[in-house]
Amino acid sequence: MLDLLEECRGAGRIGISGHIRPDGDCVGACLALRQYLKKCLPQAAVEVFLEKPADIFKEIKGFEEIHSDFPEEDAFDVFFVVDCGADRIGGAEKYFKAAEKTINIDHHITNPGSCDINYIKPEWGSASELIYDLIEPDKLDRELAMAIYIGMIHDTGVFQYSNTTPAAMEKGARLIGYGFDFPRLIQETFYQKTYLQAQVMGRALMESIRFMDGRCIVSAMDRRIMDFYNVDSKDLDGIVNQLRNIKGVECAIFMYQTVGLEYRVSLRTSEKVDAAAVAAFFGGGGHARAAGCTMKGTFHDCVNNLSLHIERELEKNDKRNH
Q: Across all residues in the chain, what is the average pLDDT?
């Protein structure tokens, strides 16, 4: 077990970062870790560096103090990489490279470990759950419990994805005992969409295409459409999950254009397709049921290349069951 306080003993400057395009688990885990270290190590300066997270997470303590402009900083004594490998922290990479000690806390099976100390547990459903396990129970309070809870619900789909364990449910039960308004937080951070986000999702669903005898579905959004609606990547959250909910679909693909002939690809799958294995072939990663990667080429190039590996996964599963 990683001893957070021992590893940070004597540190005057501690930095924390997570992956680009931070989701609820990344934001919750980073801010929970910051709260805990500030509480236990009041003499240390503890800073979080993330690309600007969605405003739906603004109730988490410390949200307004996140650095999203990646200013020049003196070297950190300890630098944490949370919910990813060090190759995915974007503008915070310069702090990681200059730090005296680096620590990786993650739950992605595709992360080989890239820090001095690597605490990687793929069997856990979220990075926030790892933070829960690493903190001293008597240091939990309402604000810290809320940060961890928000992170856990976002990576477990409010405890309905296959990465949800009995232990995660027990931890969630203990966390809501601290008295924050968890039904509202679930609604406002996980389910609720703006009217514009709902419009974009509707368009993505209308223009989706099923293939492989209906077992796979894909939808894409190019820059022209994104600019027409004036949306960015944060407004596209949840589309791939909605595609996966369609009856008969074993693998859902959602792609959006970043620059030129480049697409950010998200995969959501049933147990018949290993999403992480497919994404890893294209330099991405994630979990068995949810993964992503960045691909170059036209929409049809990307779909054709993905199809080859998705089809192999389906064939492997079909053979196992016959």
A: 96
pTM of the entire structure? 0.91
Helix, strand or coil, per DSSP, at residue 306:
helix
Residue in the structure block whose two tokens are 């739906």: 56
Whether 243 and 219 have beta carbons less than 8 Å apart is answered as yes
The rounded distance, in Å, linking the Cα atoms of 141 and 112 is: 33
- pLDDT band of residue 293 (cuts 50, 70, 90) is very high
Give the distance, in angstroms, between the CA of residue 48 and the centroid of all CA atoms in the same chain: 16
Query: CA-CA distance, 264 to 255, in Å (whole number)?
Result: 5
User: 221 has which bridge partners?
Assistant: 256
Using alpha carbons only, how large is the chain's radius of gyration in Å? 20
Measured on CA atoms in the order 39, 40, 45, 48, is the torsion positive or negative? negative
235-258 tens-digit pLDDT = 999 999 999 999 999 999 999 999
Whether the per-residue pLDDT at 311 is higher than 90: the answer is yes
3-class secondary structure per residue, 105-158: EECCCCCCCCCCEEEECCCCCCHHHHHHHHCCHHHCCHHHHHHHHHHHHHHHCC
